[in-house]
Design brief:
Layout lengths: L4 E4 L4 H12 L4 E5 L2 H15 L3 E5 L5 H13 L6 E4 L14 H28 L3 E6 L12 H20 L5 E7 L7 H4 L16 H14 L3 E3 L2 H9 L5 H12 L3
Parallel strand pairs: 1-2, 1-4, 2-3, 4-5, 5-6, 6-7
Helix pairs in contact: 1-2, 1-7, 3-4, 4-5
Bound molecules: NADP nicotinamide-adenine-dinucleotide phosphate.
């Protein structure tokens, strides 16, 4: 495969659009998600449009055995990724004391453990080949506490901290690690998180996943450490350094209080 890029969560939203951007830049692809029929449709489209090779893998990445099997499968096929894009993730809107535990646990497994596990599996070979890119999708949620989406916000804070730390470890190796921090973005995320009638999304012009994906790809290629999408999101992320944490939590609470 030519400079293959592995993308998790490529069946919709930002991951789906990242696959399109990477294919347009002539990368072969390995796409992972649970809805394989969508991956197969995307594969046919990208092969026809760009002549790239695309492999798909159906798997639930919350499961450790599935992640290991996926890795073993790529090893068997002799694939050393040029880039690993840990994009799969989800959120859920609910007061923590009432939140469904199985769903919260799955969120921790996907947003944190799968991202960390896949990075650990693929990184040694990327370092050995002296070039590579890690793109971990966090969120502007990484910068502040998030009442009513407490675990989601905390999971994205982990992604930011973890990715910044390994970016520093990787200096001089030829491999870079980038944290992409989108703000609210058009995708299936809101429906899955059951986010309805909250101020965070009211009356805002929300960018498409395609716009965010193009931005993320450029940041990854430049080896940028943190890529916050959009001028307003950049300003808001910066301003979180200036306000007391309690006040930040109050602001988020106001924006996300379930109707
Ligand atoms: N949209 C936003 O407002 C927003 C803002 C900031 C950050 N983000 C982050 O952006 C990333 C992409 O989300 P999105 O907005 O594009 O949402 P999305 O449209 O819901 O896409 C999520 C992707 O993750 C995959 N996925 C979910 N659970 C999975 C599992 N157990 N195993 C494997 N794949 C799984 C889904 O595929 P299957 O269902 O087919 O498995 C889908 O391809 C997430 O990390 C999210 O936290 C989104």
């Amino acid at each position: 495969m030519a400079k293959p890029i592995l993308i998790t969560g490529a069946s919709s939203g930002i991951g789906y659009e990242l696959a399109k951007v990477c294919a347009a830049h002539r990368h072969d692809l390995v796409l992972v998600a649970r809805r394989e029929e969508r991956l197969l449709e995307l594969k046919a489209e990208l092969q026809q449009a760009h002549g790239v090779q695309v492999l798909t893998y159906r798997g639930d990445l919350t499961d450790a055995d599935t992640r290991q099997q996926f890795y073993d499968w790529t090893q068997f096929k002799g694939i050393t990724p040029y880039a690993l894009v840990n994009n799969a993730g989800f959120g859920a809107l609910a007061p923590f004391a009432e939140a469904d535990w199985d769903n919260q646990n799955a969120m921790l497994q996907l947003n944190i453990v799968a991202l960390t596990h896949l990075t650990r599996l693929y990184l040694p070979a990327m370092i050995a080949q002296g070039q590579g890119r890690i793109l971990n999708v966090a969120s502007t949620a990484a910068f502040l506490p998030g009442p009513y989406m407490a675990v989601y916000y905390a999971s994205k804070a982990f992604v930011l901290s973890f990715t910044e730390a390994i970016a520093t470890e990787l200096e001089g190796s030829g491999v870079t690690a980038t944290t992409l921090c989108p703000g609210p973005t058009q995708s299936e995320f809101q429906a899955r998180a059951e986010i309805k009638n909250v101020k965070l999304f009211e009356g805002k012009s929300v960018p498409t996943s395609a716009v965010v994906a193009a931005y993320g790809y450029e940041a990854m290629e430049k080896g940028q450490r943190i890529a916050v999408h959009g001028a307003v999101n950049k300003l808001l992320s910066f301003s979180t350094r200036l306000l007391p944490r309690k006040n930040l939590a109050e602001v988020t609470k106001g924006l996300q209080k379930p109707a």
